[in-house]
Design brief:
Elements (H helix, E strand, L loop, with lengths): L1 H25 L4 E3 L4 H10 L4 E4 L2 E4 L2 E3 L9 H17 L7 E9 L2 H15 L6 E7 L9 E8 L3
Parallel strand pairs: 5-6
Antiparallel strand pairs: 1-2, 2-3, 3-7, 4-7, 5-7
Helix pairs in contact: 3-4
């Protein structure tokens, strides 16, 4: 009896794996979105990443960094630039901020102070029903002038 149960479980697992493999093989390849700006595109190609990857019904955006420019004493202008960049990418994909499912932020330094400066900008773009949001403190970001990195996951618009 035990051997028959194990055998049936093994057959079910094999069929499940075969179906998963077949579905994966039939799935369309991922599509990538690169920057329109030649200098930005050259940088991303050299480093090896895309502005966004579309796979199935999900869009994954790479992180966009925010930080003060020389002479700025507030984080808000940096957040304005970051959200403008994110907005441009979202629009190029034919999506809107209503399609955002996940809003993740990574903060180098004091998270609470950064979130306080981030909220007025974020709230102009992200409205109810709200996406999920995780705000993480990190020790470093790739761009030395950045204090926050914003990463989004969207549903693909129909």
């Amino acid at each position: 009896m035990r051997h028959a149960t194990i055998r049936r479980a093994g057959i079910a697992l094999a069929l499940s794996l075969a179906a998963t493999t077949a579905a994966h093989a039939e799935a369309p390849p991922k599509q990538t979105l690169m920057p329109e700006d030649p200098e930005a595109r050259a940088f991303q190609e050299a480093v090896g990443f895309s502005d966004a990857v579309v796979h199935g019904d999900t869009i994954h955006l790479s992180g966009v960094v925010a930080g003060p420019a020389p002479g700025e004493d507030s984080l808000q202008p940096g957040y304005e630039r970051a959200f403008a960049r994110l907005d441009a990418i979202i629009r190029r994909l034919g999506a809107t901020w209503d399609d955002v499912l996940v809003f993740d932020t990574f903060h180098k330094g004091p998270v609470a102070a950064q979130v306080e400066a981030l909220l007025p900008v974020k709230n102009r773009y992200i409205k109810a029903p709200f996406p999920t949001w995780t705000a993480l403190g990190v020790s470093d970001l790739y761009d030395p002038g950045a204090v926050t990195e914003i990463k989004l996951t969207l549903r693909k618009p129909e």
